[in-house]
UniProtKB/TrEMBL annotation:
It comes from Corticibacter populi. Its EC number is 2.8.1.7. This is cysteine desulfurase. Pfam families: Aminotran_5. Residues 39-85 are annotated as: Disordered. Gene3D superfamilies: Aspartate Aminotransferase, domain 1, Type I PLP-dependent aspartate aminotransferase-like (Major domain). Transmembrane segments: none annotated. Keywords: Pyridoxal phosphate, Transferase. Residues 62-71 have a biased composition (Polar residues). Belongs to the class-V pyridoxal-phosphate-dependent aminotransferase family. Csd subfamily. InterPro entries: Aminotrans_V_dom (IPR000192), Cys_dSase_SufS (IPR010970), PyrdxlP-dep_Trfase (IPR015424), PyrdxlP-dep_Trfase_major (IPR015421), PyrdxlP-dep_Trfase_small (IPR015422).
Amino acid sequence: MATAFFRALPGEAGSPAGLQSASGGAGVTPLTVPASAGTVSNELPFGKQPQANLAPGGSPLASPSGTSPNVPGTPIPQGQVPGANFIPSSHAQVLSLGNRAGVALPHAQAGNGVPDKAYTSLPAYEPKLGGITAGVPEAHAGTGAAAAQHPAGGAAPFYFSGDDYGVPSPGGAGTDAPAAPAAGGFGLDALSRQAIAALNGQGQQAVPSVPSNLPGADSASASAAPAGAPQYYFVDSVVLPSGYVTPAKPHPHGGAQAVPQAERGHRPAFDVNAVRRDFPILSERVNGKQLVWLDNAATTHKPRQVIERISHFYEHENSNIHRAAHELAARATDAYEHAREVVRRFINAPDVNEVIFLRGTTEAINLVAKAWGGQHVGEGDEIIVSHLEHHANIVPWQQLAQAKGAKLRVIPVDDQGQVRLDEYQKLINDRTKIVSVAHVSNTLGTVVPVKQIVEIAKRRGITTVIDGAQSIAHTPVDVQDFGADFFVFSGHKIFGPTGIGVLWGRRAVLEDTPPWQGGGNMIADVTFEKTVFQPLPNTFEAGTGNIADAVGLGAALEYVERLGIENISQYEHSLVDYGMAQLGAIPGLRLIGTVPGKASVLSFVLDGYSTDEVGQVLNSEGIAVRTGHHCAQPILRRFGVETAVRPSLAFYNTFGEIDQLVAIIRRLASQRRSG
């Protein structure tokens, strides 16, 4: 394997044609970069960049080496071949944006016309890239037509993903790619018309125009955007009690490029080896060993696409949003609002204005408890949670109950760790005001039947909250199908940045919830006597939000969309089933939570060892797990333990990594028995 691997390296005898040495030694053939539309020059010596937007030395946008074996499906021989730990960093040197599919372009770059020819590392899992990924001359790459350029007219504010593509066939191969769209049309015209008609059919209010008596009204109307394009870009106009209409500023681009239009693409069959090459940190070494990250329930790692998108924001778009009339404000707001639309699409929310950006799941639950609960829960009322909950879905409701004189009631679980719906129905009564449950347990991995829980509550007119922090990355989420009133999740649990999360709420419920915080961005008019608030979503986004990380979250969700959450879920379930079977066969090991069909989590305790001792041994071997109570003490105590070892999986983990974990635990169990 090692011999075949090194023969495939650039410059080695027997390497594929088209791969050139990047060593920089005498007699080196210059690296040939295939020409494409709008690309300058064909031949560049290695390390030389065109004189436009140069990436300085040491920049993450500068490729560290030449072409490399970036072929999806080629395993990385980690820990077996000398130097293999550095392979994921040796990506093919290509133009950073010019060769990317439209769906992968940072929005501001796609819309502002600024050329960007800096070199960057090529993502390994990019289904629409040509043969350069594999070192194949561009002329011999795939036969699909090139992506059409954006039409001159306004772009429709809708985004589509290939939901019918990429499901593995029985033979393991992905479905065929769709026919290439006609030039200039993207193949989206009919879908756009349907989406626009659906939006109009929902009775959404049109954005008010600028009052004719305001300065600049004539110029604003003169520069109106083309029909079908968003007319306004900044905070909505609001009618004040006096009848005065606050102005909404027109988009500085004229609206023509206010919203990106992603081309529709297919999804390949899931390939974990290709996925792993998109995550730089997975090439890290810990205590001299290759990192094995099994702490995904705590946080997930970030693909290169997310890291680069955030970097691009700070380098090209950084500004405050929803205010100012300059170019960077336009770019920043475009990027931020595009991320909101991506979230809407990902969770299938009916209205983009129902998507609220917050710091994370904890803040979102606190907002609902303090704002909605503060107004609707009174003395003698009851709040229901389950025994599975994270402390973040217990403590805010306890605080509310104590403040209001209400009562907190708990749905019990069975010995496998599943909620008991029969007991839940007994808890429901006329005093129940709200039910808040986790979709997936962070400690047991139990997938809770949230749809049934919501249906039971809705029969009595009870408000419902779903904590999706542990489900968002592992299973499809459809808030309309769930039927709940609120759904919350954190970005860092789904390969996005920390410090950003989402509260989705039904419009009617959100409009019946008072603002939680006051400040800029959420106000329409302020006097010392009264304040008029902005409509949704700005009502709940006071002050300057975490703009860059919201953009990063959007990039993370788009990355997951390209892989297909169904493909991810299927692969992860295979991992979990395998891990449960292997761990369960170890003498002296007790699994905590054994519900069939669980997600991600493999919690256990091992006879003769504290959980910290197990965690320390695993860490010495480069394996990262969490030990402790996992911010879920009630459910661990239900199973008679105070702490547990918690390996937790994501789509970039492998069966081989589970084998490494199991081998170490078996060794520990054997040593304790023999001692």
